[in-house]
Write a structure and sequence with these properties.
alpha+beta, 6-stranded antiparallel sheet, 3 domains, 5-stranded antiparallel sheet, Rossmann fold, about 575 residues, globular, Glutamine Phosphoribosylpyrophosphate, subunit 1, domain 1
């Protein structure tokens, strides 16, 4: 895992190298092993901090040039299938110390740029400088694990793995009030390609762009999104298969993909929460290559599974328990907001940050988690709700919410239209399904997988863990597992009449074989102390959000709001206190 920082002066003035290096070093947590920078034509700064995860670490900037020296790359992520790519296209160059960065870079020598991402299986964001054509090639993975933030004004363009570095260099902290308001219209913070800062956008998942350095114009080349993995023939074939056959295929995919994901000679851990997803991953890992640590986060008094977690040790081995209380949560909530440079997108970010700090203390470089399982395999209770209108999205995680104390403006209707259009695309992806209610349920899961997941959970996994030099890896986000899940008929995901197997049916069947039916406990939501944070903030009459949002009858709103709305108010208040000082 690494950090990218690029500055381009539009007026061809020389780069402030010292300031650029300072901005790059703000992301040192993402890459403690090494850092480098390169100047091109005096007005272009390329920099990267490096966390070495594959091959032998060689501190040579020449490794970031392609074979012909035409291309130069900065890269963040992991290409899990890089060895297979190397054997297929660069057989003579293959050796055990080859890195995924080198393999990716040299694909540009032999393939059209539109073909590159179709060959990749992993999490990635990269920027390639094409010296011949004088342009940048910019892209990120389709599932949204790794992101790039782009700032632009009249004088410069900045591309970075984090907002922090952009703010340091540009000193432009103008807040987008409308984006902050939109936070209240969804369960978590869904923001598409916008940030809470007016001039900073997010590169969309799977998008491939070029930036012409002469004209300073971005151009979209193509885009790969996970909707494209849906295949009518594959869905129909799966519909005719037995549960046992489907289960065997998933078992094979888990073993195959985890084998490719195991870190080379680096210490790693696996989250073991007592839930279906993380427990399954931990079980497979133990059978392949036992993690150095299995870890359970216990938010004291909040985790119902804390008393049952010892039951898993019979199958997995010793589990390390990290205890979190309200005071510790409050401390790291503030740090989480500083890392995000926005209200955190979900209150579980705090736990992820504490987890990464614990992993760093244990010298672990990677941690396996279960991001994506609930969205892809039907794990949320919202998918069991009855929907009388099969054309409507009723998922609690991606639908628009009613907010009484905010005035709807133009920005709100633009945001709503984006949500509506995204929903229409999800329905369209399953247009071949005749049963309208099945189509609706699968479209809900696709909506959450393609929008809520990358905007919320994956953003947290990236920002919180990499700040402490730890890389998060999720089995469920591998390409062929996403494709497998999106082409499963509904009967393999939810069973409305089954009490124990009503949600995440297929994963629970597999869990039962690996563990025991007795260890399938009721699903627990994200733990933490979000609603206790009002006590930390003090008198709500002094809240900045009241004046910033021009909220009337604030006392009444605080008194009548549900816990979800109160948490959003507290979360936003913490952010405003940092950025309005």
């Amino acid at each position: 895992m690494c950090g990218i920082f690029i500055v381009i002066n539009k007026n061809s003035k020389s780069i402030n190298v010292e300031k650029s290096i300072d901005s790059l070093n703000i992301m040192k947590g993402r890459g403690p092993d090494w850092s480098f920078y390169k100047l091109f034509e005096k007005n272009i700064f390329f920099g990267q901090v490096v966390l070495s995860m594959t091959g032998k670490l060689e501190k040579k900037i020449d490794n970031f040039y392609s074979m012909s020296k035409r291309y130069f790359i900065v890269f963040n992520g992991e290409i899990y299938n890089y060895k297979n790519i190397c054997k297929n296209y660069f057989e003579k160059e293959y050796n055990e110390n080859i890195t995924d960065t080198k393999v990716l870079l040299n694909l540009f020598e032999i393939k059209r740029i539109e073909q590159i991402n179709t060959l990749l299986d992993g999490m990635y964001a990269y920027v390639v400088f094409d010296k011949k054509n004088k342009n940048l090639i910019i892209s990120s993975d389709p599932q949204g694990e790794k992101r790039l933030y782009i700032y632009e004004d009249k004088e410069m363009i900045i591309i970075s793995s984090e907002v922090n570095s952009i703010l340091h260099y540009s000193n432009d902290k103008e807040i987008n009030l409308d984006m902050l308001k939109n936070y209240f219209y969804t369960r978590h913070f869904i923001n598409f390609n916008n940030t809470v800062f007016k001039k900073i956008r997010i590169l969309e998942s799977g998008l491939l762009q070029t930036l012409c350095l002469k004209k300073k114009i971005f151009k979209n080349i193509n885009s790969i999104n996970i909707n494209s993995y849906i295949n009518e023939n594959l869905y129909n074939r799966n519909n005719k298969r037995s549960e046992n056959d489907i289960e065997k295929e998933l078992d094979f995919l888990f073993k195959k993909n985890l084998t490719e994901m195991l870190p080379d000679g680096r210490k790693f851990a696996s989250i073991t929460s007592g839930g279906i997803d993380s427990s399954l991953i931990s079980k497979y890992l133990v059978s392949l290559k036992k993690p150095n640590y299995l870890i359970f986060l216990n938010h004291i008094g909040k985790d119902s599974l804390s008393t049952q977690i010892s039951n898993f040790e019979e199958y997995l081995g010793k589990i390390l328990i990290k205890r979190i209380n309200k005071k510790l949560y409050a401390k790291f909530l503030v740090e989480s907001i500083q890392i995000c440079n926005s209200p955190i997108f979900s209150h579980d970010f705090v736990g992820k940050l504490i987890l990464s700090k614990t992993m760093r203390e244990l010298n672990c470089k990677a941690v396996f988690g279960g991001d994506g399982a609930d969205e892809l395999f039907g794990g949320y209770k919202t998918y069991l709700k009855k929907n009388l209108n099969p054309k409507k999205n009723i998922s609690d995680y991606s639908r628009i919410l009613k907010v009484s104390f905010l005035n709807k403006n133009k920005s709100y209707f633009i945001f709503k239209k984006k949500l509506d259009n995204h929903w229409k695309e999800c329905l369209k992806s399953y247009s071949f399904i005749s049963d309208k209610f099945e189509k609706n349920k699968l479209a809900m899961m696709l909506m959450d997988s393609s929008l809520q997941l990358p905007c919320v959970a994956l953003r947290g996994s990236d920002l919180m863990t990499t700040s402490n030099s730890v890389e998060t890896r999720s089995l469920f986000l591998r390409k062929d597992i996403i494709q497998f899940a999106l082409n499963l008929p509904l009967k393999f995901k939810i069973r409305e009449n089954s009490k124990l197997f009503s949600t995440k049916f297929l994963l629970k069947k597999l869990f039962k074989k690996k563990f025991s039916k007795k260890l399938i406990y009721p699903k627990q939501g994200f733990s933490g102390f979000p609603n206790e944070m009002g006590d930390v903030l003090g008198d709500h009459k002094k809240f900045k959000i009241k004046d910033f949002f021009e909220i009337k009858n604030f006392d009444k709103i605080i008194k009548l709001s549900d816990n979800s709305t109160l948490w959003k108010i507290y979360n936003t208040e913490f952010f405003l206190r940092k950025f309005l000082n």
